[in-house]
Amino acid sequence: MKIFGKEFKLFNYDVDGKGIKKEPEGPKNLKNFFVSYASKFGQLVTVNIYMILGNFPVLFALLAISGNLNIHLSAPATKLYTVLYGVLQDTGDPVLAAVNGVFGLRGDLSLPTVATNIFWVLSLLIFVTFGLVNVGTTYILRNMVKGEPIFMWSDFWYAIKRNWRQGLILGVLDLVFMVVIAYDILFFYTNLGNFMLGVFFWFSLVLAILYYFMRFYMYIVMITFDLSIFKILKNALIFSLLGFKRNFMALLGTVLVLFITAGLFSVFVPLGVIIPFVIMFSTCAYMSAYAAFPKIKQYMIDPYYEEEPEDEDFEPIFKDRG
Predict the structure, then answer these.
(1) Which DSSP category does 79 fall into?
(2) Which of 16, 104, 137, 149 has the fewest Cβ atoms within 10 Å of its own Cβ atom?
(3) Average model confidence (pLDDT) for the chain?
């Protein structure tokens, strides 16, 4: 269509523009971390919401633990209660009344109900949701670290659809490992008393830190490379040692975030409660991804592109090039 000698198009798809701006690449160091974190703060809030809502079975467990669904009764605190109670019915002896004041105390008793047990069962859904949510959020966080354009909702489900089988398996293993390690630490700590128990306690603590470092890499390796679960765990263990310096810095950052949250909770409870639901979990996860991905790129991605295979039928181990 021409107007005053000039041609106009009603729908023109050939327009030059900036499009989606890609973040400029730079060294993934401590200085650039704060710049990157600030620029992605809004996206990290969304990731935190995905983590909270996606792992909704935790809320069922918290409700069951709270005891609000239980039956609350009053029960004797000592075995002498029934004897003293029976004697006092026939006599008003002040001595027995004084003894009853000491040994006739009653305590609160909380018994689980059917509703409590139902919520405990529903909380087991965490073994389904935990791995899948980690897959979706890790994919988003990895692309954030890479500086790639992010489409929050579609990227989240894209990663889950491509990796849901391994995500379920890895999520179950992840939860089991964390529960077992946490139980060992608490058991040996509460039973400290001899040299061997002390050795087991410190060994469990070191193992917990090592496994925490492994978790930086497990899900990123899974969504990036086509590997078996065994090789994913093996590579995560190797990277936990290769990237020890970066891993340790991420650990310090996580401890600092938890310390600040606990401090705010002690000073102003509403703010301390809100932070975990808004930004805490995604902040810790972003620090781990920021520490882990450069090492994965250095040892697993860059060597492949530096030495491209000559065989045209060769299929790379990458799950995606994004």
Answers:
(1) T
(2) 16
(3) 84
